[in-house]
Automatic annotation (TrEMBL):
GO terms for molecular function: carboxy-lyase activity; pyridoxal phosphate binding. This is Amino acid decarboxylase. GO terms for biological process: amino acid metabolic process; carboxylic acid metabolic process. SUPFAM superfamilies: PLP-dependent transferases. It comes from Candidatus Fischerbacteria bacterium RBG_13_37_8. It comes from the Bacteria. GO terms for cellular component: cytoplasm. The modification N6-(pyridoxal phosphate)lysine is found at K292. Keywords: Decarboxylase, Lyase, Pyridoxal phosphate. InterPro entries: Aromatic_deC, PyrdxlP-dep_de-COase, PyrdxlP-dep_Trfase, PyrdxlP-dep_Trfase_major, PyrdxlP-dep_Trfase_small, Pyridoxal-P_BS.
């Protein structure tokens, strides 16, 4: 592709993206295609000779777009958001253009140093303890795996890296913890049977006294408790585990405390919501995802540790071909996690934080929380509807309840959700809380405004009426 052609299509794609954001509401939020519909349209074999960009762009629009679920639609209320923003997208374009692979300082000093500074900015924005240092990972799943590996090494005085796991080591998390905890426990070699699920209270927060009992019981049996994973903003209901109490137990029992705040962490930039991290100073590591709720393109997950030395000692490698004369003076992020090669993710984050400034980021998050509270109030006032979990942030769990039996209610709410999502106008997803099927409405797409939440409420009520 020559320079002029590249320029032409580059401008054309930016135009398309700008229009897309204006018109995104004309698409069904959740893709309506059936399994295999897209694959059938892609040739089974690669083309032998090249094709013109015009044709590729046509096929993008014709074949790919119908199979896209529009996460940046203002009617997005499913899962948690993975929101983005124009400054983030522009940053990603430059990152793609540079095509740097930022494994060590030398392979792009600016990437390493900007990442270091961005993590300092985020640490201040969330008021994490001074002295903590951070690294950008792809996802919270990876960050939690790093925490489990570092916890394993610290518990065994860095013996497991050398000799493999010789002891029966245990991990603790609330029954409401994210599925990545189980996955990571398996990958890190602890074994699923050594993961202890601790009961949660009526607000879906871990019960610290149950945690303490379980750790002591395990110690008496000869197991080695290695890591507690607390969740701030559980995936099902945004429950907030009490870090202060959990932290004291972890300090007394000398167990690594990792805090997973993948979604909710962003809310801690608001002074009024900073309480969700009260007690964080007791933690050894912490993760939250700017790629969920901080207007930064997927992927960008911020992982912080109290003691970078333990992290580096767990992951460092020193092959001859990666040695440079600067290694004593600089941060080589290859030693801060699993992957060697690394994307330049700090650039988009820099653009987002600078373009909006902390104040505007705060006001956008505050607005999402306000909209969720508003929706909660509508539910509370409406006969036949009920709120199913405390609404601390921007997630509302609710269901319809006309007094029929629990198992029938589950079926009823399932049909309600299918009917809502089939409209294509909004998209929301479900979970179960203490065995009850509930719908989740998560506000967080950048363009979602009060009118969109109002519209969602009308659709939900209409669908409820039609199935009752
Ligand atoms: C979304 C989520 C995760 C997983 O996030 P990834 O970055 O996709 O790995 C983990 N924990 C919680 C609480 C989450 O909400």
């Amino acid at each position: 592709m020559n320079k002029d052609e590249f320029r032409k299509h580059g401008y054309q794609f930016i135009d398309w993206i700008a229009d897309y954001y204006e018109e995104v509401q004309k698409y069904p939020v959740r893709s309506q295609v059936q399994p295999d519909a897209i694959k059938k349209q892609i040739p089974e074999t690669p083309p032998i000779s090249g094709e013109p960009m015009e044709k590729l762009f046509e096929d993008f629009k014709e074949i790919i777009l119908p199979g896209i679920t529009h996460w940046q639609h203002p009617g997005w209320f499913a899962y948690f958001p993975a929101n983005t923003s124009p400054p983030s997208i522009l940053g990603e374009i430059l990152t793609a253009g540079l095509g740097s692979q930022c494994m060590i300082w030398q392979t792009s000093p600016a990437a390493a140093e900007l990442e270091e500074r961005m993590m300092e900015w985020l640490r201040m924005m969330l008021q994490l303890p001074e002295g903590w240092e951070g690294v950008i990972h792809d996802t919270a799943s990876t960050a939690t795996l790093c925490a489990l590996l570092t916890a394993r090494e610290r518990a065994t005085n860095f013996e497991s890296n050398q000799s493999g796991m010789r002891k029966e080591m245990t991990v603790y998390a609330s029954e409401e913890a994210h599925s990545s905890v189980e996955k990571d426990v398996k990958i890190a070699g602890y074994g699923k049977q050594y993961l202890r699920y601790i009961p949660a209270d009526a607000a879906f927060a871990l019960l610290p006294e149950k945690l303490e009992d379980m750790i002591r019981q395990d110690k008496r049996k000869g197991y080695m408790p290695a890591c507690v994973i607390a969740t701030v903003g559980t995936t099902s209901s945004a429950g907030i585990d009490p870090l202060e109490a959990i932290g004291q137990i972890c300090c007394a029992e000398k167990v690594w405390l990792h805090v997973d705040a993948a979604y909710a962490g962003t809310a801690a930039i608001l002074p009024k919501k900073r309480w969700i991290l009260n007690g964080i100073e007791h933690a050894d590591s912490f993760v939250f995802n700017p790629h969920k709720w901080m207007f930064t393109n997927f992927d960008c997950s911020a992982y912080f540790v109290k003691d970078p030395g333990a992290l580096i000692r767990t992951f460092e490698i020193h092959p001859e071909y990666l040695k440079t004369g600067r290694d004593a003076q600089v941060k080589n992020f290859r030693d801060w996690g699993i992957q060697l090669g690394r994307r330049f993710r700090a650039l988009k984050l820099w653009f987002v934080i600078r373009y909006y400034g902390v104040e505007q980021l705060q006001s956008m998050i505050r607005e999402h929380i306000r909209l969720a509270q508003l929706f909660k109030e509508w539910i509370e006032k409406e006969p036949g509807f009920e709120v199913m979990a405390p609404v601390h942030l921007s997630l509302v769990c609710f269901r319809i309840n006309d007094g029929r039996k629990e198992n029938e209610l589950n079926e009823l709410n399932k049909s309600l959700m299918e009917q809502i999502n089939d409209t294509g106008k909004i998209f929301l997803t479900h979970t179960t809380l203490k065995g009850k099927y509930v719908l989740r409405l998560a506000v967080g797409q950048r363009m979602t405004q009060e009118s969109h939440v109002q519209n969602a409420w009308e659709i939900i009520r209409k669908c409820a009426k039609s199935i009752l």
